[in-house]
Amino acid sequence: MIELFDAQAGFGGARRGQPWIPTVEELLGHMERLSISRALVRTDFEEMDGNVPLSNQILYETCARHGPLMACPTLLPAGCGDVPSEQEQIDELIKNGGGAATIRPERDSWSIAEWCCGELLGMLEDRRVPVLCRLANFGFETMADLAGRHPELPMVLFQVGYRFQRTLIPLMKTFSNVHLAVGSPFSVHRGVESMTEQVGAERLLFGTGFPNSDMMPPITMLTYAEISDADKQLIGSGNLDRLIGGIRR
Amino acid sequence: MTTLLEKGRLGESLAEYEIVDMHAHLMRGPFPWQESSADHLVRAMDQSGVKTSLVSSLECAGFRMEACNEVMYEATQKYPGRLLGYVYVWPGDPEAVRAEVERRLEQGFVGIKMLVLMGYDYTYPGYAPAFEIANERRLPVLLHTYGGQRGLADQVPTIAPRYKDANLVLAHAGAQKVEEHIQIANEHENTYLELCGSNATYGAIETLVESVPLERIVWGADDLPLNMSHQLGKVLGADIPEEAKKQILSTNARRILSQIRK
Fold first, then answer.
1. pLDDT at position B30, please?
2. Which residues of B touch A197 (CB under 8 A)?
3. What is the average per-residue pLDDT within A148-159?
4. A5-245 fold
5. Mean pLDDT to the nearest integer, A109-131
6. Which B residues in the span 232-251 are in contact with A, Cβ-Cβ below 8 Å?
7. Could you tell me how many CB contacts below 8 A there are between chain A and chain B?
8. Number of alpha carbons in the 13 Å side-chain half-sphere of residue A50
9. CB count, 10 Å around CB of A33?
10. What domains can be seen in chain B, in order of their start residue?
């Protein structure tokens, strides 16, 4: 059985007008039912996540209690002085065994200009900390801009829909530090196969999309894909393990 | 006994379940492939062992109705029993619609496909001949009905009672505003909820199974352009009884097909 390490999952966030706040117990329950051994977790839904330090604290504490979970906290540019410095945020991530960071310029209202976020991204790049990037927070042009400015920063694009192959493939061919999490809504006809052929299996990460999405569909997209078992294992967990293993702790 | 979930997790064949996909397309789009769409679709079916897909063609762009359906006819000839054709309808000329539907049914097509995204409501007069024939022959009519968009809550309650013998298959049930699909399915016995959608909205399958009669839920993949194996995972992984999964994946669709009047 392919080992699965979910790169696209979260819990503990909320959406406006929706009573359900996905819990870690729900996440772990589904992981056990579907034989997903580990998950890199963010605060999700992110829509109402207006207190990043508090959310990160809860995330770290929760991951410390649950072995299969690894934290992916949200980091912010510290130019206003209202949050710890970039260095302190990254040190905290490392100290808590975090496996990646997430950055959300659109959600958290900061500019991707170098004078605003350059210090944060430069420090993450120096430490080779993978950065998770929800497409809606960036857009492809911004992803390309950041990937070009920080070529040693491992970037993982996620929540990418099925209509973007003509843009996604050239982006990933141009910038070798961009990776793709193939969780929902990446329900693309022969998506795993074509991305493996075009950019290589080592650039693809298994993800589910929970709590936005059911967790099983990306599993069957992978288990039934017409690629080698070795590539399935890379996508299932090997690539994320490699990226996390590359962090200069 | 290995469950459907376990088979999906392991990537094992599902051929023994004789799965019927109620929603597939032949099409070109923003996707990088050169080969025949029909070959691509059958290859996707073979990955997991899906037996039959009901397919409509948008291969030649949706305004070229006859050309699209000709591609579909050729595909059904190449893959008999694997690909069954929906007659795709562009409703600009009612008489052309009637002639096209009658001709394609003679060729063995088994249903009709309408797409509100083409800019015509389902109540548009050009669609009426197709609905009338579907009503006479008790055909499945696949309708794009995304929750919250035109075509569902504003139109299906009008056409469902008007064509009571047509089996209206409402695509994308549960993708958004699941309550709209639930209400319509419970008010109109000739409506069926089909489950495709790229996002695989969390909990949608369980909600639908709890809320509408099980025999009114069918599975479709919307491949192409979506990923058939991804869409299959929604049902395989749903927290519902094993028998309900089989009914959604096969039995209910077969019942709809068995009701067609020759």
1. 64
2. none
3. 98
4. TIM Barrel (3.20.20)
5. 97
6. 232-234, 236-239
7. 134
8. 3
9. 14
10. 4-258 (3.20.20.140)
